[in-house]
């Protein structure tokens, strides 16, 4: 693998036709998702019904945050509940199954997670605590929460389509998402130095931990996806689209029917790159075992059942500097 630009190859495109309000379209959308996720494990979602104005506001909010002085961002250093600012070179992907990663990611980010009120019984348990907000950007919280609300609603509605795609009753997955575990990560990738070698990444080769990743990226390029034949495909930006991929937990849940595909980021655009992945995952207490439609006499379960929260915490504890220092 080199720093040379990868050829522009488009991933499958799933067109929602304006959203999920028409159940009559769910079957066709489910078929398109199944085809994409049985193959490369990545696709574009277009015409999802998420307002473009919300997407634009979120990008603008991310740029405002990352333009703050470093000391102001550092004052919001990521807390024990995995919320706040992560400085460059503080995330080393030790759990990568596709590469021996030797250097931290050359990126910085702000992490927001699902809101947990103080009177909620979950408050104070792992990953169930307060978000952090920059006081000097009063509109930042408004824009982030508006976007998260829209993406969370889209994720919940999408569960019915995914169930149909997996030959299940439409409501089969909903009990596992009573309290979805969600992450919104506002990423900034500085230009990669011209002298960078093959071990320098904005995000090193990895798979995502959870259920589904819904990524909004700018037009800089740099995201690459490993195809089933081992070649790396460029996830060419499409305006107004999402790049969506299967996470490890969904791959386990489908018993390997759907692929959790390795991917990486190298920002060789010469300018700043911004992306906003939204990770939509099950309840921390959900126990994930192979779905009945994905097993059979000649296809037994490949993985033992696992509590999602235990699986997630093991990976966070290994990959993030702040958690290693706290242990």
UniProtKB/TrEMBL annotation:
Coiled coil: none annotated. InterPro entries: DIOX_N (IPR026992), IPNS-like_FE2OG_OXY (IPR044861), IPNS-like_sf (IPR027443), Iron_ascorbate_oxido_reductase (IPR050231), Oxoglu/Fe-dep_dioxygenase_dom (IPR005123). Its cofactor is Fe(2+). GO terms for biological process: ethylene biosynthetic process. The keyword Metal-binding applies. Pathway: Alkene biosynthesis; ethylene biosynthesis via 2-oxoglutarate. It catalyses: L-arginine + 2-oxoglutarate + O2 = guanidine + L-glutamate 5-semialdehyde + succinate + CO2; 2-oxoglutarate + O2 + 2 H(+) = ethene + 3 CO2 + H2O. Residues 180-282 form the Fe2OG dioxygenase domain. It is an enzyme of class 1 (oxidoreductase). Gene3D superfamilies: B-lactam Antibiotic, Isopenicillin N Synthase, Chain (2.60.120.330). Its EC number is 1.13.12.19, 1.14.20.7. One of its GO terms (molecular function) is metal ion binding. Keywords: Ethylene biosynthesis, Iron, Metal-binding, Oxidoreductase. Pfam families: 2OG-FeII_Oxy, DIOX_N. The keyword RNA-binding does not apply. Belongs to the iron/ascorbate-dependent oxidoreductase family. This is 2-oxoglutarate-dependent ethylene/succinate-forming enzyme. The lineage of its organism: Bacteria, Pseudomonadati, Pseudomonadota, Alphaproteobacteria, Hyphomicrobiales.
């Amino acid at each position: 693998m080199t720093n040379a630009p990868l050829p522009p190859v488009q991933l499958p495109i799933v067109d929602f036709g304006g959203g999920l309000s028409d159940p009559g379209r769910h079957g066709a959308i489910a078929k398109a998702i199944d085809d994409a996720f049985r193959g490369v494990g990545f696709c574009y979602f277009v015409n999802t019904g998420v307002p473009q104005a919300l997407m634009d506001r979120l990008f603008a909010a991310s740029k405002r945050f990352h333009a703050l002085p470093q000391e102001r961002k550092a004052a919001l250093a990521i807390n024990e509940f995995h919320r706040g600012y992560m400085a460059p070179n503080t995330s080393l992907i030790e759990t990568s199954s596709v590469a021996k990663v030797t250097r931290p990611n050359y990126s910085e980010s702000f992490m927001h997670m699902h809101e947990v009120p103080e009177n909620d019984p979950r408050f104070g348990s792992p990953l169930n605590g307060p978000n952090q907000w920059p006081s000097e950007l009063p509109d930042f919280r408004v824009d982030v929460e508006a976007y998260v609300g829209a993406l969370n609603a889209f994720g919940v509605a999408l569960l019915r389509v995914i169930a149909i795609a997996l030959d299940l009753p439409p409501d089969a997955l909903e009990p596992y998402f009573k309290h979805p575990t969600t992450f919104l990560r506002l990423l900034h990738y500085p230009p990669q130095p011209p002298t960078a070698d093959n071990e320098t990444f904005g995000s090193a080769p990895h798979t995502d931990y959870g259920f589904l990743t819904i990524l909004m990226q700018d037009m800089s390029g740099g995201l690459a996806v490993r195809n089933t034949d081992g070649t790396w495909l460029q996830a060419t930006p499409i305006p107004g689209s999402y790049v969506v991929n299967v996470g490890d937990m969904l791959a386990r849940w489908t018993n390997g029917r759907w692929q959790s595909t390795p991917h990486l980021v190298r920002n060789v655009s010469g300018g700043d790159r911004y992306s906003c992945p939204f990770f939509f995952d099950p309840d921390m207490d959900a126990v994930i075992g192979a779905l009945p439609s994905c097993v059979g006499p000649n296809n037994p379960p490949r993985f033992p059942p696992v509590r999602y929260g235990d699986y997630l915490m093991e990976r966070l504890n290994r990959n993030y500097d702040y958690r290693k220092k706290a242990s």
